[in-house]
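Usage

Read records sequentially. Each one opens with the input sequence:
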Amino acid sequence: MSDKTRKIKIGSLTIGGGSPIAVQSMSATQTQDLEATAQQIEVLQAAGADVIRIAVDSEQDVEALRILRAKYPDPVFSVDLQENFKLAPIVAPLVDKIRYNPGHLYHLDKDKTIREKVQFIVDAAKANDCAIRIGVNCGSVDPDYKSRFPDDSVSAMVQSALDHCTMMDEMGFVNYCVSLKDSSAEKVIEGNKRFSQARPDVPLHLGVTEAGLPPEGIIKTCIAFEQLISQGIGDTIRVSLTLPNEDKGQEITVGREILKDISEGRFRSVPENFSEKLNIIACPSCSRVENDKFVELAQDVRKMTEYAERHKLTIAVMGCRVNGPGETDEADLGLWCGPTRVNLKKGTETLGSYSYDEILGQLKKEVDLIINEKFGAPDSAIGA
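and closes with the structure output:
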């Protein structure tokens, strides 16, 4: 936690200014599935979540959230506006914090400027006493910033966050925090350090996005949190793990264990070659996922690729069409999942679309080809 950041209010919760670091997670269910989302809220409540984030992308989602809020009046709710910033005025009365992604604001109302759209969100937050999180993500940075920093994704994220903070300040809104997330722990560390140096007053929400399956996802998150929190950077955290819905409470448990270890000076050792081996990135699942087989697929990908463990290559398994295409671009191989098909990519190139039954076999072929191309491995070194 940082004593330098200002305190902000998120409903009954205070973060920043030396307050205890808050631990949060996100419902991974379709918001309109009231029974499943209610169960998810209860799982996260039971685990001790300080903040529960729910996604909305339509007026139907907002109506579902209205029912859920009436049933659960006490939890601190954050809402993820996803790509639909226009929902801000009708969702703000139901939640304590609004999260928007600067990179998504260009999708709707293209005749309006980004500043006008931010003002629209700020007005809704002010009218309903909501906090705001400016959530910058590696795979969905505003195209203007990508073009300004074509070979430096960290600078693109940091500058986007700084510019949105400036807009908030100029609009007279101070009850906001920022997150800068990447699937690389090293980039999360660099980005948050640079932002904190430029704006030490702004509370930071920390997370390694698409950290993936345990235990690797926990290790990646530990690397980032230990380096940042030990230097006084970070006011709230999320551990993003690819888990079945009923196990999402583990994100809270793991987060609290990491914080306890850091506070007591217990730092987990990381093998020197940890980042030199096979890296499987997988998103933590959320209401955007259109097929629950996604989590099982991520687990199957890890098992199938065990034979390639010693090779430094990255495979990204993403659960939706919103973030999937962009957030697989930097992986050697990327899978992003739709309702019935899985799209396979090699870098930015789309290789094809396959059924959930076909995708593992096709992925193995591509893994073997890359091993031969990049590492010159003989056929005998490639798994059967």
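Summary fields computed downstream for this record:
- The chain is about 40% helix and 20% strand.
- The first strand starts at residue 8 and ends at 10.
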